[in-house]
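User: Could you write out the 3D structure of this protein bound to NAP? I've included everything you need below.
Assistant: Certainly. Input first, then the structure.
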Amino acid sequence: MTVKVAVVGSGPSGFYATEALAKRIPGCEVDIIERLPTPYGLIRGGVAPDHQSTKRVTRAFDRTAARPEVRFYGNVAVGRDISLAELREFYDAVIVAIGAPIDRPLGIPGEGLSGVVGSAAFVGWYNGHPDFRDLAPDLNCQAITIVGNGNVALDIARLLAKTRGELASTDLPDYALEAIAESPIRDVYIVGRRGPAEAKFTNVELREMGQLSDCAAIVNGSQLPDSLAGVEGSDRDLRLKQKNLATLKGFVDADPAGKSKRVHFCFYAKPQAVLGQSKVSGLVLERTRLVDGRAEGTGQSFALDCGLVVAAIGTRSEPLEGVPFDEKRGITPNEEGRVADGLYAVGWIKRGPTGVIGTNKPDGEAVAVHIQSHIADSKKAGRRALEGLLKQRNVRSVDFNDWQAIDRAEIAAARAGAPRAKFVTVDELLAAADGLTDAAE
Ligand code: NAP
């Protein structure tokens, strides 16, 4: 009988694994199990609302979902509605594709003050993720500091620096659009503990910082190296770094006059302590220098006044009951995606939070090849058992048609020029799936 596989998580890694299985094993049964009523993981909840073209990858995922081999079960949480042990009993293989959704702590004094938030929470908030829509970060301040030199730091800075007009064409929920557009923010600091050559920005995203209508990008030219001599990396890495340096040099020469906001790139500064009584009033940073590529404190420190600190320092995965987890590395130990007999991992839970959307594709391919060559004859009940159990437990699962009803309702409710108005609570999403809503909040 045909091979039956459950994929836990419907972000890019889950969809790529599903597609690889459906292509390689005709007639197989692949069921995607997703905690939220909506598919696509970070494409919906992480990719910046002003990067709509990046979100177009969901069209390929829609084709995957439409394959006869594939079913989507949204609003079904493993660990709440069904256990991993049950899934392993029902399916020949379970692929864990749950990403890395947890913010890493800064590990400095004052971190617990109101006004210190992690990037996963902050990005989730402005993306209308049901887990974070109530975050309500206080943007009633003139300056915000973002810690980290990766693309997530750039996404956050760019969104905060945009004007109401620039934000109008995004799918930012109204509450986030109003909070940003009405905020008195003037200065956004992006701080990196190492230098410009070590920053993880990609160049297209860095260049965007120089193309904002009412914000100037500011760099202290003395922090930019003349060349990349001594910097390690592949030819490709070095070419990217070279481009980033050229872009940053362009910012040094740019005239900030007449712009109401500024994004300041501050390198060689590592967070030491958050200042404030009950809420953040500033961040103390220690100047660093590079020693063997690492940021070493110099003992000199300075403070940035700010009302919000966003730690965009990478995220980590969380353990899923029944799946081995390496606390130190924040991933599920695996060998090319294989965790145990019939248990696999793909994407960020497999290898940590790095790479772009397409980086997940080979992960899916590798596990599909393994499943294809190791599981030939299935005696498992698969989908039939899953549906029986969900019915018995009264779980209101969301299928792909339901999701498409949500999608249509969100598109119909969009403000002028915006792609959609997201429903931001599970209840609203379920009501839209049931066809009970035609206007988002
Ligand atoms: P990231 O690229 O790993 O960047 C994390 C940054 O945080 C690094 O600059 C790192 O510095 C710094 N950092 C880590 N721990 C720190 C600490 N304790 N104190 C100060 N700084 C610290 O992570 P990310 O920005 O979250 O992005 C995750 C992945 O998603 C990346 O692969 C990224 O490219 C991708 N992404 C892509 C896009 C896009 O293509 N448009 C958009 C968003 C995200 P060190 O280098 O010194 O460790």
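Residues 37 and 75 are 4 Å apart (CA to CA).
User: Perfect, thank you.
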